[in-house]
Amino acid sequence: MLWSKNLGFWRHNIRLERVLGYYSDRLLGQHPVNAIPGGMRMNLEVHRPHAPPMPAGRVQHGEVGKRQPRDGRTRWGVALALTLMQHAAAAGQAAPALPEALQAYVDESLKEWEIPGAAIAVVKDGRPDALYVFGVLELSRPEAVDVDTIFDAASLAKSFTAAAIATLVDEQRLAWDDPVRKLLPAQEFPDPYLTANVTLRDLLCHRTGVAATNGAWMFSDLTPKQLIGLVKNMRIDAPFRTRMIYSNVGYTIAGETAAAAAGMSWEELVTQRLLVPLGMKRTTTSFDAAPSMGNCASGHAMLSPANSYEDPSIKGYVQRPTPRGTARNSTAPAGSLLSSVTDLATWMIFQLGDGTLADKRIISPEAMNQMHSPHIIIPTTPAMRAARQVRFFPGYGSGWQVMDYRGESLLWHTGAGHGQRAYMALFPGARLGIVVLLNSSKVEGLHLALGARIADHCLELPTRDYCAELREPWERDLRAWENSVRERLASRRTGTAPSLALSDYAGSYRDPLGLDAVVAHADDELVMRYGGGERAKLMHWHDDTFVARWENPFHAEDYFTLVSFELGEPGKIARLRTTLGRDAVDAVRLEP
């Protein structure tokens, strides 16, 4: 049974106040941006399982995110507040809870959607305002989520890549508008003009015009250097600097450029310039290292049984833990960030400030402004504006979507890891930050819906049941999935056989990117591997077309993949065609 640490436990309010300024000044330094005139109180709730609840007493529910009057003379830095929260967590305590009505809504929504585990943080006026944790690290395991649990924040990494570059800009090791070739002379783009003119700013706001080409890294096993070496062969989808095309490959180039300027790896750069100074000890940029840190949430997704290609029913289509992917390291600067809700609260406080934390300058105000300013406008439709409640215009800065929410300035980004979802929203005008972490991708948009409900409360705006509004589209998508299986079966021609013996299909096939799809024959089976990465058994579908059954169930569920072989001269296969993600692959057979 899933349970929330914020419900049904003994609550004891601890008031922390009137700590001598000597300690905060000596340990942390004066921090005018986050100092609270007149002192600061921090309510911590002690949780004791299976004990009767204490009277509500002094716990101030219903006021999270709203400005509170303070008394006394102590000024605490935000780092001290976060340190106290971490010590409290280690002692079995938690930060101030969400207001009762809001907490009940979050609890009910997570239970209704059967989300295994979640963590939420709210920061306000330069300090942590609330932390919330729910459920377990993995279904069928007893370990509970806590404030130090590491979630897969995925594309939230982009704001860290931009910030790491900002530190180098401040040191004049590079400039936002430096051509990439200045630091990566070997880097080529699909067009000579792009090769000569693409800058870091272009990469950070996704305006190069180069196609996303996600299949090149999602199914392969490439190093970042190998991946960016393929860019010269990628398709151009828009004229330079005219349209935003979200590009994980572009951020990988930006990360490699920054690494060259700093004389260290991107991972070392982010760790030394950001994670260490900010005290983010439960954060890593290494996808492979996260499990060894312990207390790491597993992803979950709706996965169907192995025979779903032949069975149009949804029987057995259930939420299960997903295996950890093998294709994250190649695009680490774009999507390899694993972090706890407490650490991400620190990140939000830093991003909402002036580039300092605990009176330590990390990034200049000018560079902070560059990251948070739009550098390309994103066209909108009336439906998009209504759905996102946008009044003005959206754009993309450096690592952040830049728009408004119901008229309030907003910086935001999402992360979509393997079976996990993250959403971070910053409201600079209100000095408010919200992060929502879920270890399930069962329902798309739930992290956004929870964030919107919390934002409405904190901004004192009329609200609605965003989570309930997800039900109809979710059920519609489920029906669409069932119908797509039926359509596949209807399109399959029965009574056919391959033109050749299975062994004749084996070989290496090279696509225009320069990646090889290698088809091997053994034990009367064909196995395909693309770019040295994910493996799939090729099962006969009809004629000379096979269906790829990916060994990774996450890929098997998300990517129904047909692989067609084309005959050339009699008795010989000439090429292989398939679609990986959204990318068409037309690969020519290589001579042995």
Structural overview:
It is a single chain. The protein has 592 residues and is an alpha+beta fold. It folds into 3 domains: 13-163 and 268-307 and 316-474, 3-Layer(aba) Sandwich (Beta-lactamase), CATH 3.40.710; 164-267, no CATH class; 502-589, Lipocalin, CATH 2.40.128.50. It contains 17 helices and 25 strands. A hairpin with a 5-residue loop joins strand 18 and strand 19. Mean pLDDT is 84; it is low at 1-63, 66-80 and 87-93.
- In CATH terms, the superfamily of the largest domain is DD-peptidase/beta-lactamase superfamily
Helix count from the secondary structure assignment = 17
Query: Could you give the order of strands across the largest sheet?
Result: 5-4-17-16-15-14-13-12
Q: Work out the radius of gyration.
A: 26 Å
- Helix coverage percent: 25-40%
Give a summary of the structure in a few sentences.
This protein is α+β, with helices and mostly antiparallel strands.
For the structure shown, list the relevant keywords.
alpha+beta; Beta-lactamase; 28% helix; 8-stranded antiparallel beta sheet; 8-stranded antiparallel barrel; Lipocalin; 592 residues; globular; 25 strands; single chain
Describe the secondary-structure layout.
Elements: E1 13-16, H1 21-28, E2 42-46, H2 78-90, E3 93-94, H3 100-112, E4 117-124, E5 127-135, E6 151-152, H4 157-170, H5 192-197, H6 200-204, H7 215-218, H8 224-228, H9 248-262, H10 266-275, E7 300-303, E8 318-321, H11 332-335, E9 338-339, H12 341-351, E10 356-357, E11 360-361, H13 365-372, E12 376-377, H14 382-388, E13 395-396, E14 401-405, E15 408-417, E16 420-427, E17 432-438, H15 446-458, H16 471-491, E18 507-510, E19 516-522, E20 525-530, E21 535-542, E22 545-550, H17 553-558, E23 561-567, E24 573-580, E25 583-589
Antiparallel strand pairs: 1-2, 2-3, 4-5, 4-17, 6-9, 7-8, 10-11, 12-13, 13-14, 14-15, 15-16, 16-17, 18-19, 18-25, 19-20, 20-21, 21-22, 22-23, 23-24, 24-25
